[in-house]
Amino acid sequence: MTAMVSITRRRWLASAAAVPLAALPLDRIKLGVTTDEIDDDPAAAAKFLREFNLNWAEIRNVWGKYNTAQPLEKIHELRGIFDAHKIQTSTLGTAFFKIPLPMETPEGRATLDNQWALLNSAFERAKIMGTTRIRTFAFTYQGSAADPKHYPRIYELVAQAARMAGERGFQLALENVGSSYVSTGAEAANLLKAVQHPALGLTWDPNNAGLSGEQAYPDGYRKLDPARIIHVHLRDYRKAANGQKGDWTAVGEGEMDNLGQIRDLLKAGYRGTFTLETHYKSPLGKAHASRTSLTALLKVIDKV
Known about the structure:
Shape: globular
Structural class: alpha/beta
Number of helices: 10
CATH architecture: Alpha-Beta Barrel
Strand content: 15-25%
Low-confidence stretches: 1-24
């Protein structure tokens, strides 16, 4: 293990040295990182971002808990840390609707009541953090495939959430994610056609779609209306040779065409934020994993 760690460290040091920060074209691309994929301490994450001259971040977990589980005084403390480091919040990540679709029973209605309360707490925290965008989902399912009969009810609930967000001046940036009723570009396109509310947009995650079995780029992406994409997640993945799920890799070591995807988004007029959410696991820890993927991603962006 020691030898492997040493080789990994040497490989990263060599690649990092090849990317001069002053030359990076970050004026055209609003790039950030999910802070807890660097460190659960937001001050350490902010210092990392400034090291790379990045001034955007997606907020999910802070100090070991989802931001929606932290008291408001901790969110005010978080805002102070960001302001001190000149970091802006691109999107407030929540677990809203990242649950199995509740049954239409008293217990299910109670579960939904808890979800509406979660969304209201997200509104409070997003306001403090200075963002109008809140990352949400479209429910998860058990088993190997989604049951199509549930989509009308899901669309109705997502539309209700969008109306709530719009009334408060927020936008829902719904993410496609594995084992969800919206995991691919095709499924996201269907939802966005069904729910036309202006307070609903998409966090497009082509890697989630790819690991869900879709040819996410270019096929899945081309099913989408680029005008409805309001946030983008970047990383890399590799499907398993035996047909199993596969796994996350460092950027550049998988099969995702990040360069093509970024170029197509910019060509379509996308001017929103991008977040590196590497998910890649390094033996040297989370910060090293994000550093490795970010260094590679910046080389990709340099070619855009």
